[in-house]
Structure formats: structure tokens, C-alpha cells
Amino acid sequence: MVLFYTKNKSVHVYEDKNKKTLTSRATMEDFFFKGEVEIEVKIAGMEILKIDGKIERTMFPGYCDGYLNKIQNVVGLRIGSGLTKKIMKLVGDTDGCNYLAGLIMECCEGCILALTVKPLERAVPEIKQMKDLTPKKLADMLPNMKNSCLAFKVD
Fold this sequence. Notes:
Elements: E1 8-15, E2 21-29, E3 33-42, E4 47-58, H1 67-70, H2 83-90, H3 98-129, H4 135-141
Antiparallel strand pairs: 1-2, 2-3, 3-4
Helix pairs in contact: 2-3
């Protein structure tokens, strides 16, 4: 068997010492692209405070040129409902750089998951005993999940 294609993605999320911000770094490498994005997010409000990125390799000359500057447009956005659409409009889409947009989304998802781990660990024993678990009940137990997606939409 011959290996034809490999893609490696990595996401790491760190909490600062004061527990006020998260730093999330996503890297991706495949045959066509190698790059990374790092964001800093204020935990209260989930606002993107800083973003940085770099592209080490792209197989298509000119693809993603200028988009390292355009990623700065996501500073000030809040991680929450509608984020994917906003990031695609600002960075990705047909005339953008979908690689960078994807890495930004990976960083944001990493932040959400990082903040979900501790409450989920506390809730697991209770969840295991619930016979009528619904997305609404789970969202009540894990407040950062409220309105994070259609399944956890709270009116």
C-alpha cells in the first residue's frame, strides 16, 4: 500500500495565570498548505482580543496572499452564534483563504471545548443518572453550551 495523502491538524488551548484569557493555537499541514493561527480570547464574553497567523507553504502561488492582514478583521468578534458565517465572510469564501478561516474556527472550537471540560466533569455523574436528558437540560447544566448551536438553542 502506498500513502498518497496526509493531513495533520493540531489545536492547543492554554489559560492565562489570571484565568481571564485563553490562548488557542491551531496548526495544519498537508500536501497543499502549512500554516497556523493563534487567537487570544477574553473568557468573560468570549471576545477575540488578538489574532496572529503565518503561512509557511501553499502550493498555489498567490492563494491566501494578503489574508494574513485580513484575519485582523476577526478581532472583536465574539465566539458564539453566527461565528462561522462571519469568519467565512471576512476571511474565507470564494475569494478568501479557506485554510486560514478553517484554522480560526478550529481555535474557536478549541476555546469552547476547553471551557466545557470542567463543567462537564462535574456534571457527568449527574448526567449518567438522568433518564430524561434533553438538550435543554444539558444546556442548563452547562451554561456555556446555551445557544452554542441549534441543539442547545434556548429561547
